[in-house]
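Q: I'm a student working through a structural biology exercise. My instructor gave each of us a protein and asked us to get a predicted structure, then write a short paragraph describing it. Mine is SsrA-binding protein. I'm not confident about reading structure output yet, so if you can add a plain explanation after the tokens, that would really help. Here is the sequence I was given:
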Amino acid sequence: MAKQKKQPQGSIALNKKALHDYFIEQKFEAGLALAGWEVKSLRAGKAQLVDSYVLLKDGEAWLMGSHITPLTTASTHVIADPTRTRKLLLHKRELDRLIGAVQQKGYTCVALSLYWKKHLIKCEIALAKGKKEFDKRHTEKERDSDREIQRAMRTKGKGE
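A: Happy to help. First, here is the predicted structure for SsrA-binding protein. I'll explain a few features afterward.
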């Protein structure tokens, strides 16, 4: 009998810029239609989601702007396009909810992360609303004050 391989766990790529630029309203888990060389590159952790977004067109969802760097050893016989458009696999009711919300004013759909779920690669996408500049400053102030409180709590416990 064949020996079972250990499946990789955890996150492949995060889009921290999306958390900074948007208020996250609702999250969805989507599958990805990938080529073989892309899966090998993702196993090696060669992915970026910095400027990626989700395009909703003709009742389908497409991941645009994500970058998966091809491995030189894996894609010798295929002409690899690192920024190609990849199809997101969602249920019909999830697609309908996303399309309905994006047609409202101010909503957009962004990719938050790529991660492993057992042997499958999933993309976490979110329905988001854009932040204004003062919202971003307010978020940074909250984060700084939380950090100061945590630091004070840590030093208070050690001083006694």
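A: Here are two points you could use in your paragraph. The chain has a mean pLDDT of 80. The helical segments are 16-21, 36-43, 92-102, 133-159. It's a good idea to check both against the output above yourself.
Q: Great, thank you!
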